[in-house]
Amino acid sequence: MPAAVEIHDLVVRYGEKTAVDGLSLSVATGSVTSVLGPNGAGKTTTVESCEGFRRPTSGQVRVLGLDPIADHDALMPRIGVMLQEGGAWSGVRALEMLRYVAALHSNPLDVSMLTDRLELGSCGRTPYRRLSGGQKQRLSFALAIVGRPEIAFLDEPTTGLDPHGRREIWQLIRELRTDGVTVVLTTHAMDEAEQLSDQIHVLSAGQVIASGTPGELTDQGARSLEDVYLSLTHPRKSE
Ligand SMILES: Nc1ncnc2c1ncn2[C@@H]1O[C@H](COP(=O)(O)OP(=O)(O)OP(=O)(O)O)[C@@H](O)[C@H]1O
């Protein structure tokens, strides 16, 4: 089966700043892939390049075999996107927003199921800007998956969520995987990466510095993923 995402030698510069510096990776169709790395390592920029929101300075990105910029209109209905900053209009009520996005798709997930499981029922009539941080996260996640995308790009999907919310999102991600959806997520939570991922890529300074399954990276659990991550990203501090 062809890879869901193929990134080859990607460079993204913002003026003088090189955010992504010759990065290559691929994401197997139907897998859950986590992208880890310190703040500023280039995770969001890489994911945004896959979503067509960043134009590569050089290199090649293919998502479902398509160019995210040139084929943007064809690609967008097939992918789900959860941005770090949310991505909903400030005055729109949570449930209206979710129903609206669901109606844009031919075979959406059941909105009541999502609102129940993500505990959005009680805030369904609340304008987006008045939602709590965790409620915004839950809604953004729901918006990303409600259209049954072929790939879901989730930028820090559980940051700021309470433990119940985190576990529910983990469970929904596992269900997406069972349904054959490819999931690419960024996270700073090592337990999240370890529990959910088929494949992990660790980024530093805009490059991939390590890749593997959780078992491969941790020597089958002999070391914690956090220790491995710390030694990879700040070698001197972990000595
Ligand atoms: N629009 C922009 N203009 C200028 N520089 C930017 C822009 N967006 C990102 N950068 C810079 O590019 C680098 C990579 O940022 P990016 O957001 O991709 O990192 P990240 O790994 O997602 O970080 P975090 O874990 O903090 O979310 C950072 O140094 C950041 O300051």
UniProtKB/TrEMBL annotation:
This is ABC transporter ATP-binding protein. Residues 5-230 form the ABC transporter domain. GO terms for molecular function: ATP binding. It is found in: Cell membrane. It comes from Kribbella deserti. CDD domains: ABC_DR_subfamily_A. InterPro entries: AAA+_ATPase (IPR003593), ABC_transporter-like_ATP-bd (IPR003439), ABC_transporter-like_CS (IPR017871), ABC_transporter_ATP-binding (IPR050763), P-loop_NTPase (IPR027417). It comes from the Bacteria. Pfam families: ABC_tran. It is a peripheral membrane protein. Keywords: Antibiotic resistance, ATP-binding, Nucleotide-binding, Transport.
